[in-house]
Amino acid sequence: MARSLTSYTWQNGFAEPVDTAPPWTRSSHHVTEDGQRSNYTLPEQGIRPTSSVSNEYGTSTLRSWPSLYNGTAAYETPPSWKPPQEVDVLICGAGPFGLEMALNLARFNVKFRIVDKAEGPSHSGRADAIQPRALEYLHAWGISNEATEVGPLLNKTILYRNGVKLFHGHSSTCDSRYKGIHIITQSQVEKIYIRDLLRHDVLVERNTVVDSLDISKDPASDNPATVKITNLRTGECDVVRAKYVIGADGAGSRIRELIGAPFDGLATDCYWAIIECEAATDYPHILDFSIVTSSKCGGTIILPREQGLTRFYVHITGADAARITATRKRSRENNSAVGETEVYDHGITPDEVMQRLNEIMSPWKVNVTGQIAWFAVWRVNERVARHFSSPDQRVHIGGDAAHVHSVLGAFGLNSSIYDAANLSWKLALSLQGNAKPEVLLPTYDAERRLFANRVIRASGAYLRFICNLDLPLASLRGLDSELETHDEALPLLDGSKEADADWLRSFFSRNAMFLIGVDGPVVDTILNKTADTMMQRPTSLLSGVRAPDPRVCFGIDRTSYLYDAMLGVGKFHILVFASDLQGPVRQRIAHFSTHGLGPSGFFHRFGGRKAFNVVLVFKGRPREVQETIGDADLDNIRSLATLVYDDRAPDEDAHYYYGINHARGAVMVVRPDLVVGMSTWPEDQRELDEYFAAFLLEAETASKEHD
Predict the structure, then answer these.
(1) 533: Cβ–Cβ under 8 A, 6 or more apart, which residues?
(2) Using CA atoms, how far apart are residues 614 and 141, in angstroms rounded to an integer?
(3) Rounded distance between C-alpha atoms, residue 250 and residue 268, angstroms
(4) Mean pLDDT over the full length of the chain
(5) Which residues neighbour 204 within 8 Å (Cβ) at sequence distance 6 or greater?
(6) Hey, which CATH number is domain 551-706, 2.30.120.10, 3.90.79.10, 3.40.30.20, 3.40.50.970?
(7) Where is the composition biased (Polar residues) (predicted)?
(8) Residue 163 CB neighbour total at 10 angstroms
(9) For residue 687, which of 662, 673, 668 has the smallest C-alpha distance?
(10) pLDDT in tens, 237-278
């Protein structure tokens, strides 16, 4: 959202704009007929500009609610707010990654504090889109609907190069219920997160910075991390003792610096000016996602936004880029400033950016017809921290603190969601005494750093094509031979249509699903158990990939998706594919029910209902299952499992998605972050026992350790 909501009335059953003030502002809506005032009063509000620049149409503004969104630095701190000196986790930074970690840990009832240098959340601009995979995580967390109902879904993609149309077709889509890229600004996403935290009685401590971090080497220390923080507004200092520290403090991360993690990569001389405004143009595809490039003038990316706005990313080259470099006056405060991307001293005006945009767009013209909702200049930095976790696993970084890259692919906000989804459950299970932290926590660095490497390679190659840059990809360290796994072929940039078209075909054949989040590198860790390739596997899915989300039936009057049986943040989902529970498969499922879910099986050994969510996928209609599931040898699965009905045609059902043998069935372990962990035959309990024993503690041991 880039500007305050218009005043509406719903008197006819739908929203209609009106010229009068909205009812919530009128004093008459806060008193009874005899003058008694309502107990509810309006929270403090303010009107703030959305951009640091204005034009002949004035200054764009957006209503803010600091007492709701800013945290403890806003007006009065609630009397109930008493931040503890000792916590399980201290989160340093309240951008997307920090807030995502917070809302996940809140769902685990983990004791934490979250601090941030800024006086409030993002007010406008910044990240602009959410990928389908990220929305699947928000759905599991219970907040996806808020994110999908703000801006448009990108349905079409158009790409012109040197006046030649190279592509005009549907944007990449996938089998997720969310299909493709959804438009929403980072400021809206942060407000969704903050509202969620308020429901959990969590406030962000604003205007607060980290001064120092010390990790005790005493193995007997309950809270080995000692962090000194300072409130910039009051000057008050505080000491927080924590079991773990999360570095979510952005590209110039202080936490990354304190743990000595080099930020490998490169800073380019490629600048993007970003202007968001109402625009009039004769370009015929202004309502679609477009890329227009010129080997002479650079490129632009065009995104339709909510409220009738358009965002233009404009590549700045030549003398303009040199001037921006020359006028950058920001001093480098510490070694970590190497990763920062935003240029606060712009060195270029919106009018100059529009002139450059029209040079790129020629023969089409673009004119600004309203206030500038957001204006920024960004320098492309391509970097990945050499490690995402400290050697003792007490400090972990994510989001921009761990990796920065170009805007191509919208990976900034989305990668932070993936980082948080990966780390939060591992941290929480370790804190609760249910897991072996020395085994589980290192998998965060292994899995997420390799993903970040692919982001750098893919978005970097795409950037070089769009901007006509003859520049090698960033050199990264600490990935050994795995670095080459994601090498991207750079464009030839010889000006020929054939070479451009060939490169695009090759690039998107490898990266189309990666650019919308559903594809990613498969990392060999203790969590992703690979089946013996010499034997027939229970499923066609590889371990370490996204678990598919097919449509299923939940009862005679409700259908939805399989993920609706896999909500929440902390449980392993045990998917039991049972075909129609007749013939040879029935005996195998009964064996799993009796032994796997019995008193000595993995289910009760490693935590029972607190650790596992069992889902029985039955091939048939709801009434048919009653004839087959009533016998005593299926008592355990009948009482413990959520039953879903796979009643669609064979070419679109869940058994097909997962590649299941109907005669043998299968048991699939899906991790809390909705990634396939392993699969086995229903009768093979040893595989399940060994898998969970590798990183989980048995329930009795976990209870003693937690006490």
Answers:
(1) none
(2) 18
(3) 19
(4) 92
(5) 70, 71, 72, 94, 99, 114, 115, 116, 121, 194, 197
(6) 3.40.30.20
(7) 37-56
(8) 10
(9) 668
(10) 999 999 999 999 999 999 999 999 999 999 888 899 999 999
State the first-to-last Cα distance of the chain, in angstroms, to the nearest integer.
Answer: 47
Give 229's pLDDT tier (boundaries 50, 70, 90).
very high
CA-based nearest residue to 312, from 281, 339, 267: 281
- Backbone torsions φ then ψ of 600, nearest 5 degrees: -100, 5
Q: Is 287 within 8 Å of 280 (Cβ atoms)?
A: no
User: For the segment 56-115, what is each residue's pLDDT rounded down to a tens digit?
Assistant: 999 999 999 998 899 887 666 777 778 999 999 999 999 999 999 999 999 999 999 999
CA-only gyration radius of the chain, Å: 27
* CA 112 to each of CA 16, 48, 85, 675: distance values in angstroms, whole numbers, following the listed order: 44, 31, 10, 26
Neighbours of 531 (CB within 10 A): 16
3-state DSSP helix/strand/coil % of the chain, to nearest 5: 30, 25, 45
Residue 525 has pLDDT above 80, yes or no: yes
CATH 3.40.50.700 is held by the domain 263-385: no
Q: Residue type at 329?
A: K
Tokens of 377: 């200049």
pLDDT at res. 331: 41
C-alpha dist (Å) from residue 670 to 343, 432, 571, 575, 680: 42, 20, 9, 7, 12
Sheet containing 666-670: order of strands: 558-561, 551-555, 642-645, 612-618, 572-577, 666-670, 676-680
Say if residues 272 and 407 touch (Cβ distance below 8 Å). yes
**In the chain, what are the domain boundaries?**
129-184, 263-385, 551-706
Query: Residue 483 — very low, low, confident or very high, per pLDDT cuts 50/70/90?
Result: low
- Cis preceding linkage at 363, omega within 30: yes
Largest CA distance in the chain: 83
Angle (CA) 653 655 660, round 5° = 155
